[in-house]
């Protein structure tokens, strides 16, 4: 398989009045062709900001450093605005969490889909664009697509809006699709349909997908690889089934144990004590040490390095055995 | 004796053009002391309207609500709020940003009793300790607390009048999983210590399976299936319950995993509900008669079901 995206030691920091906030610290991962990578972690752990870096959508005051940030061998860090346009929406598509607020309420579905094609497929004429828009709407399973063309976002339900967002994201046959919590705002019945749709599209178009979610049961079912993030670091990554069935990092184990299991066990849930560290005042050692059940003095003093262990990468001195 | 009994409750909203949205349509259930009733269903199925009606934030159209044997019509609002209280979904939106923690917690006390400020502060610190907050935080404002701590404040406020029943409307949906577990453990502990009864509204089936004793599945204002948790979750009867369990990716039963997909993903408009069984337009196993006959609520396999099949 070919390597599509390569990220090596990516760090993103913000200089604020109160000091420097390291939103993402030293993360490395690859995405291969046709593969699905799941990203999980609590709010504020750097999941979304990593995706923004891949899309060049970070705010101006963000300082990005990386040994490598390459898409299809092209260095993303040296791109100018014009070259970014080719990647964004062209080779990399993005689906956001809340479909209602990511569509422009003032324009029709047709206008918004057309816009993508106008920018990325200038060779198409008006009639060809309309045909393409209709076929996209059919691809994402919107019934009676012709009638939906003139609809405004408020006339669509949550599931329908998310389908339109997906149509926009796949309009230019991207090689990589980034789905940032695509089903969190949707009902569980709709969630199932959208996940099926994404899986089907991925197969038929041979896309790679980065799937960000806090819902571990969804990530387990649809991803090949998984990476667990905590306070802007990747603390464990590997094959999804391995990480889920035998987590090595105490944080991964804690996350899995705090979900009520679907059986008759009604005993007290495991809960991770405390809260995530303040990014402006990071602890010196392991970022998770304060909340960890397996820590030693070393964890408070030293920052654990990334290691390879049991076919996965891990940042921990005392893995769960 | 049941602490809460609801009989044929209806809450309708009139809309333009003489139409009516039947948000809660003929619901009946009972809640026993020290038990938890889970309420599940898609957005727009009437879960929150039910909560609001029980809290007298919406007026009921018909039916009766009994609080410990006493009908709601014979109770003053003050009496009612000492019996039933509510915890809201979004912990930040439901706390007044201009008030300090102790004021937020004891607001219901100041309105409904003649307690002095000193008594309020004392009560507030007791409650903060009970829900796992540090008592020196009583002079802090909501924005100075984390998400999980804010939800603890909301819970402390709901307990200040010593109610018997708490309505929890999606109390953990806005929280991260690790914090969600902390709050669920707290709710279980409080229930045991204070003999509370909960109505737990959620769209997360694994959470409801964990915390509730009985569950009521709602669809467009009506009951689909209502019974003990092991029946609803381990051997569901109604196709809608099966659909929910299948979509949530949690059940390991093959019957659920192989249950056919929904025909139509969209919830029908509550303004124009389908004829016959409301679910028949989406039901993958519907028969001809489902579009003609409104299924009665019957006892089938030890639970209440409204389905012709």
Describe the structure.
The complex is a heterodimer of chains A (321) and B (309). Chain A has 321 residues and is α/β, with parallel strands linked by helices. In chain A, 33% of the residues lie in helices and 24% in strands. An eight-stranded mixed beta sheet of chain A has the order 7-8-9-3-10-11-13-12, sandwiched between helices. In chain A, strands 1, 2, 4, 5 and 6 form a five-stranded antiparallel beta sheet that branches. In chain A, β1 and β2 (19-32) form a beta hairpin. In chain A, α5 (126-139) packs across α7 (158-169) and α7 packs parallel to α8. The longest helix of chain A has 18 residues, at 188-205. Chain A is globular and about 70 Å long. The mean pLDDT of chain A is 91. By secondary structure, chain B is of the alpha/beta class. Chain B is built from ten helices and twelve strands. The two termini of chain B are 34 Å apart. In chain B, α3 (101-112) packs across α4 (117-130). Chain B is globular. Chain B has an eight-stranded mixed beta sheet with strand order 6-7-8-3-9-10-12-11, with helices on both faces.
Indicate the topology.
The complex is a heterodimer of chains A (321) and B (309).
Chain A: E1 3-16, E2 19-32, E3 36-40, H1 47-55, E4 62-65, E5 68-71, E6 74-75, H2 81-87, E7 92-95, H3 99-102, H4 109-120, H5 126-139, H6 145-148, H7 158-169, E8 176-180, H8 188-205, E9 208-212, H9 216-222, E10 225-230, E11 233-239, H10 240-245, H11 250-257, H12 297-301, E12 307-309, E13 312-314
Parallel strand pairs in A: 3-9, 3-10, 7-8, 8-9
Antiparallel strand pairs in A: 1-2, 1-4, 1-5, 5-6, 10-11, 11-13, 12-13
Chain B: E1 2-14, E2 20-32, E3 36-40, H1 47-54, E4 62-67, E5 70-71, H2 77-83, E6 84-87, H3 101-112, H4 117-130, H5 147-159, E7 165-169, H6 177-194, E8 197-201, H7 205-211, E9 214-219, E10 222-228, H8 229-234, H9 239-247, H10 254-257, E11 298-300, E12 303-305
């Amino acid at each position: 398989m070919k390597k599509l995206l390569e990220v090596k030691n990516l760090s993103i920091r913000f200089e604020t009045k109160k000091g420097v906030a390291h939103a993402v610290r030293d993360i490395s991962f690859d995405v291969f062709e046709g593969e699905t990578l799941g990203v999980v972690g609590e709010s504020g752990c750097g999941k979304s900001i990593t995706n923004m870096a891949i899309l060049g959508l970070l705010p101006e005051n963000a300082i990005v450093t990386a040994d490598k940030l390459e898409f299809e061998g092209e260095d993303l860090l040296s791109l100018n605005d014009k070259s970014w346009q080719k990647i964004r929406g062209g080779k990399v598509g993005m689906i956001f969490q809340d479909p209602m607020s990511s569509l422009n309420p003032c324009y029709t579905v047709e206008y918004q889909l057309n816009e993508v094609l106008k920018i990325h497929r200038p060779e198409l004429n008006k009639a060809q664009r309309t045909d393409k828009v209709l076929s996209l709407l059919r691809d994402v399973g919107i019934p009676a697509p012709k009638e939906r063309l003139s609809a405004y976002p408020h006339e669509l339900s949550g599931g329908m809006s998310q389908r339109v967002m997906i149509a926009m994201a796949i309009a230019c046959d991207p090689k990589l699709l980034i789905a940032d919590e695509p089903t969190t705002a949707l009902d569980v019945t709709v969630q199932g349909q959208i996940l099926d749709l994404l899986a089907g599209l991925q197969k038929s178009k041979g896309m790679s997908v980065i799937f960000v979610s806090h819902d571990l049961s969804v990530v387990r079912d649809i991803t090949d690889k998984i990476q667990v993030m905590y306070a802007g670091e990747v603390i464990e990554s590997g094959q999804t089934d391995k990480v889920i069935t035998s987590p090595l990092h105490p944080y991964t184990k804690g996350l899995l144990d705090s979900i009520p299991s679907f059986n008759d066990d009604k005993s007290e849930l495991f809960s991770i004590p405390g809260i995530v560290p303040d990014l402006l005042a990071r602890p010196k050692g392991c970022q998770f040490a304060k909340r960890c059940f397996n820590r030693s003095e070393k964890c408070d003093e030293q920052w654990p390095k990334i290691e390879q262990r049991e076919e996965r990468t891990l940042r921990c001195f005392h893995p769960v055995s | 004796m049941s602490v809460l009994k609801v009989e044929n409750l209806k809450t309708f909203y009139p809309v333009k053009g003489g139409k009516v949205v039947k948000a809660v349509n003929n619901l009946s259930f009972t809640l026993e002391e020290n038990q938890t009733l889970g309420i599940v269903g898609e957005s727009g199925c009437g879960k929150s309207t039910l909560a609001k009606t029980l809290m007298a934030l919406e007026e009921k159209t018909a039916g009766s609500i009994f609080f410990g044997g006493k009908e709601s019509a014979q109770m003053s609002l003050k009496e009612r709020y000492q019996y039933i209280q509510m915890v809201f979904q979004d912990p930040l939106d439901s706390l007044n940003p201009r008030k300090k923690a102790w004021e937020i917690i004891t607001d219901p006390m100041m309105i409904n009793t003649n307690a002095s400020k000193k008594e309020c502060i004392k009560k507030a610190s007791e409650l903060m300790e009970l829900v796992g907050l540090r008592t020196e935080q009583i002079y802090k404002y909501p924005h100075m607390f984390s998400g999980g701590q804010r939800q603890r404040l909301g819970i402390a406020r709901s307990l200040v009048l010593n109610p018997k029943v708490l309505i929890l409307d999606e109390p953990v949906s806005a929280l991260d999983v690790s914090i969600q577990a902390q709050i669920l453990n707290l709710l279980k502990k409080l229930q045991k210590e204070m003999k509370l009864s909960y109505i737990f509204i959620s769209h997360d089936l694994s959470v409801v399976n964990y915390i509730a004793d009985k569950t009521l599945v709602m669809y467009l204002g009506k009951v689909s299936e209502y019974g003990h948790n092991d029946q609803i979750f381990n051997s569901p009867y109604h196709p809608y319950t099966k659909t929910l369990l299948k979509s949530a990716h949690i059940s390991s039963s093959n019957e659920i995993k192989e249950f056919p997909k929904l025909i139509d993903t969209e919830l029908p408009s509550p303004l124009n509900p389908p004829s016959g069984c409301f679910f028949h337009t989406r039901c993958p196993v519907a028969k001809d008669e489902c579009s003609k006959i409104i299924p009665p609520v019957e006892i089938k396999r030890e639970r209440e079901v409204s389905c012709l099949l």
